[in-house]
Amino acid sequence: MTTEMLEELGPIDIVVIGYPADAPMTGSAAQILLDEVDKGTISVLDALFVTKGQDGTYSGFDATGLEQGRVGDFHVFEGASSGLLGDDDLATAADAIEPGTSAVMIMYENRWAAPFISAVHANGGVFVDNQRIPHQDLIDAVEAS
For 13, phi and psi rounded to 5 degrees? Predict the structure, then answer.
């Protein structure tokens, strides 16, 4: 990628979504994410899958050769493998989930923000950083007030 291409990117987010063994996995979450891709709101760059055994060991794989029976409706992420996520990220995801849980780690670009970031650069500004407030932190803050 060239510097010009990078300056056109929106902020990049990574989410880890865990599914305990008894989760119903209806597929609605994958479809909502795909709807945002179709609208151009986001662009999925990478997807990794991890499973953590009861003994704490884990295994994982990227979004190539996905089978619906193995990853449910997340098989639609077939080919979402930019190479930006790797083994260290897999270990981080495994550390974040409980034993007996499977998870998907999704890296996506916030395409909706790309024109804003581009305008910031055109006006001499520099995109320094972005922060995300974890969902549970927001819930805890609202409940505490």
Answer: -120, 155
Closest by Cα among 62, 99, 63, 59 to 78: 63
Tokens coding 129: 């950083």
Q: What is the pLDDT of residues 116-139, one digit of tens each?
A: 888 888 899 988 887 888 888 889
pTM of structure? 0.80
DSSP state letters, the chain? --HHHHHTPPPEEEEEEEEETT----SHHHHHHHHHHHHTSEEEEEEEEEEE-TTS-EEEEESSS--HHHHGGGGGGTT-B-S-S-HHHHHHHHHHS-TTEEEEEEEEEEGGGHHHHHHHHHTT----------HHHHHHHHHH-
Question: Dihedral (C-alpha) 140, 91, 131, 9: value to the nearest 10 degrees?
Answer: -140
